[in-house]
Request: fold
Amino acid sequence: MENLLVWARSQMNKSDCSPRMNNLSELLSKNIELKRVAAEHKEITLIAKFPENIEAYFDLDMIDTVIRNILSNAIKFSEPGGKIVILAEDQKEEVIIEIADSGIGLNEEEIGKLFEIDKETRRGTGGEKGTGLGLIICKEFIEKNFGKIWVTPNSPKGTVVHFTIPVKK
Reply:
């Protein structure tokens, strides 16, 4: 429901993008703690691999929504006993964030359709439902924050969602 509201608001141009310098590490940590109970319920381990004080230039509410959506998907599509690694690395001009799960994964055709609105959705490993709007919202919000988002297969199984945000204005 939250995704539908966020998406509807963004389509009516009611989601203002106000980027400024923020602590990305704090935002990542907050979202990991927020999703910890859901992960523990499915016996999924969350592993944080990023320095304490990564600063970047982004709209706090939008990137908060992006991180929360991607983590929710990673948990939704991971099997019990799986793991999710959250990595962030400062690369001079941009920060690259990767959220890698050991879940059921996607084939190339599915990856190609992830950011389309009229695709078929599938249930998570625990029967969880989705609207298919989460990654569409993520793409829109990342692009409004001057970043890029893409998805690759994880080895040996699972998915990695990568996105970038600028380090400076």
Summary: The beta strands are 20-23, 45-49, 55-58, 83-91, 94-101, 149-153, 159-166.
